[in-house]
């Protein structure tokens, strides 16, 4: 089972300059090809990494911000074999799928109609598709319906915070995951509203009963330059092995161990 990253950046400036990429990441199990948060450049990164977009069978979009959704409709077009087959699933929130106030629906009704099923997921709700169970987790961010995700698989659970600031529910929502993908926009000492900084992640990990085996920091802002330093800082303060997402980072999860490589 693999987790493959097509980007590591987030926020407006990183999205504009594309230094770290904003293609989201994928989870590949025996039966599932799940794409999470396909922002700008997703299809280009997939071509570069030799990943076939047509294999995708679940699309997850965490919230209605463009660094998470711009390539979602193209992923649907791939998933449905160029809109010729009713195929695949979309799991997202109400803003992305229906629109809410100033947030317009990011995936057209036309695209939604070509999928086997479309699920609106609220925090605490779960849906089982193929060989994975997807559970929505709570966030506090611009989109009031934004969610994170806990993916339960035959090789343990993977957590994805989505965009959020530090809230107490994160502790319970991600306790016991084997790998936690944490959207850490800001470096240590730079706490801002709506996002996590390294210190928030350290607090979160420190409060967990069962800490993850591995943390991948993701959705890093343009000004987060010394990513290795941040990873070391988090490791030193939590004892949890921490790596930074990168285009082509692949984490393979086995029953009793994991491995890391770069495609
Ligand atoms: Zn956002």
UniProtKB/TrEMBL annotation:
SUPFAM superfamilies cross-referenced by the UniProt entry: Metallo-hydrolase/oxidoreductase (SSF56281)
Residue stretches making up the Metallo-beta-lactamase domain: 32-219
UniProt keyword annotation of Hydrolase present: yes
GO molecular function: hydrolase activity
Keywords for this protein: Hydrolase
InterPro entries noted in UniProt: Metallo-B-lactamas, RibonucZ/Hydroxyglut_hydro, UPF0173_UPF0282_UlaG_hydrolase
PANTHER family registered for this protein in UniProt: L-ASCORBATE-6-PHOSPHATE LACTONASE ULAG-RELATED, UPF0173 METAL-DEPENDENT HYDROLASE MJ1163-RELATED
Record keyword Phosphoprotein present: no
Species the sequence originates in: Methanofervidicoccus abyssi
Transmembrane segments: none
Protein name (database record): Metallo-beta-lactamase domain-containing protein
């Amino acid at each position: 089972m693999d987790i493959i990253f097509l980007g590591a950046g987030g926020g407006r400036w990183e999205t504009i300059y594309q230094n770290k990429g904003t293609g989201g990441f994928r989870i590949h199990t025996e039966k599932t090809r799940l794409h999470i948060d396909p922002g700008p450049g997703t299809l280009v990164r997939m071509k570069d990494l030799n990943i076939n977009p047509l294999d995708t069978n679940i699309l997850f979009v965490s919230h209605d911000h463009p660094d998470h959704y711009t390539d979602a409709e193209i992923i649907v077009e791939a998933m449905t074999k160029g809109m010729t087959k009713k195929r695949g699933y979309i799991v997202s929130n109400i803003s992305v799928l229906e629109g809410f106030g100033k947030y317009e629906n990011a995936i057209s009704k036309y695209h939604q109609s070509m999928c086997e099923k479309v699920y609106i997921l609220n925090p605490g709700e779960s849906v089982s598709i193929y060989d994975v169970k997807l559970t929505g987790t709570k966030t506090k961010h611009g989109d009031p319906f934004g969610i994170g995700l806990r993916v339960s698989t035959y090789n343990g659970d993977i957590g994805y915070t989505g965009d959020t600031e530090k809230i107490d529910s994160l502790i319970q929502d991600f306790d016991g995951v084997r790998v936690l993908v944490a959207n850490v926009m800001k470096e240590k000492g730079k706490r801002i509203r709506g996002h996590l900084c390294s210190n928030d992640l350290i607090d979160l990990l420190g409060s967990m009963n069962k800490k993850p085996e591995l943390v991948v920091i993701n959705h890093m802002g343009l000004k987060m330059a010394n990513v290795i330093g941040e990873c070391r800082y988090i490791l030193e303060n939590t004892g949890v092995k921490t790596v930074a997402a990168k285009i082509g980072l692949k984490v393979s999860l086995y029953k009793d161990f994991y491995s890391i490589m770069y495609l």
